[in-house]
Specification:
Layout lengths: L1 H8 L3 H8 L4 H7 L5 E6 L7 E2 L5 E2 L1 H13 L3 E6 L2 H6 L8 E5 L8 E3 L4 E10 L16 E5 L3 H9 L4 E5 L2 H10 L4 E5 H10 L3 E3 L5 E10 L3 H16 L2 H8 L6 E2 L4
Parallel strand pairs: 1-4, 1-5, 8-9, 8-10
Antiparallel strand pairs: 2-3, 5-12, 6-12, 7-10, 7-11, 7-12, 7-13
């Protein structure tokens, strides 16, 4: 039994792809119940996905979704969402079959998560003249923090902040607009997105450090146990084989790190 476990744990990408040719029917039927794998893509997280002016989706999540479809032997339909909260809210409506989201206990009530495949940072953006200098200093009475509703950092900060208040917008760009137009004290978000906001708006700076480590995983609607097991094994394989690292490098997301293999 130990020998068999070791062999499975060391399965190469080629072996995993070969096994996909005989993927158990329950996994295929749960991940592609209509014959197509519908992958929810949150383009509000600029580290993992982007949407151009013509509506075309690209990025790390897109490449991983297509790889999963290839191994399952089914076509892939990309289902766009502008915010992570909208992805998780659609889990019980049958709008998608697999998604790319940060792991959170609240989301796990309706979504079966794999282990993380990528780790990114949650950070704070303030105006250059702001007296706030450290991550800890943000949690003060009267401090107003702009966030995207339902995002991983909204869920985390809702539990972590004891004194500061959260001002919620429908998406990451809307949260940035709220921060700027309503003269809020802090904008919370993914570091890379905040860096872009700072570049486009002189007079802003990032507070050093991070307030959370955002563990990005793949998720399947709760109750699809065979599909969730297959996706969990798939995630471990793309980490071990180097596929996840190569995809991050190809997309220029060098600040994000591949999560440790389990």
């Amino acid at each position: 039994m130990l020998r068999r476990t070791m062999l499975v744990g060391g399965m190469s990408a080629a072996a995993f792809a070969a096994r996909a040719q005989s993927t158990p029917d329950p996994a295929v039927s749960e991940l592609a119940p209509g014959g197509t794998l519908r992958a929810a893509i949150n383009y509000g997280n600029a580290v993992l996905a982007q949407r151009d002016g013509a509506g075309k989706l690209s990025g790390v999540s897109v490449d991983i979704a297509h790889e999963l479809g290839r191994r399952l032997g089914v076509p892939v339909e990309l289902v766009p969402f502008e915010a992570a909260g909208k992805v998780s809210a659609a889990a019980s409506r049958g709008a998608w079959d697999v998604a790319f989201l940060a792991v959170d206990p609240e989301r796990a009530k309706e979504i079966s998560f794999s282990n993380p495949y990528v780790v990114i940072e949650g950070a704070y953006l303030v105006r250059s003249a702001s007296p706030l200098q450290t991550v800890a200093s943000v949690d003060g009475e009267g401090t107003r923090v702009a966030v995207a509703r339902g995002s991983a950092y909204d869920l985390f900060l809702s539990r972590a902040l004891q004194h500061a208040s959260l001002e919620r917008a429908t998406s990451t760009p809307d949260a940035a607009d709220l921060f700027l137009t309503q003269h809020l004290d802090v904008l919370a978000g993914v570091r890379q997105a905040l860096e872009q906001t700072a570049l486009a708006n002189p007079g802003l700076r990032l507070i050093p450090g991070r307030f959370m480590e955002i563990k990005q995983a793949m998720g399947v609607p709760a109750g699809r146990n065979a599909g969730a097991s297959y996706v969990a094994a798939f995630v471990e394989d793309i980490k071990r084989s180097g596929f996840a690292a190569a995809t991050l490098a190809k997309k220029g997301q060098t600040d994000a790190a591949v999560a440790p293999s389990e």
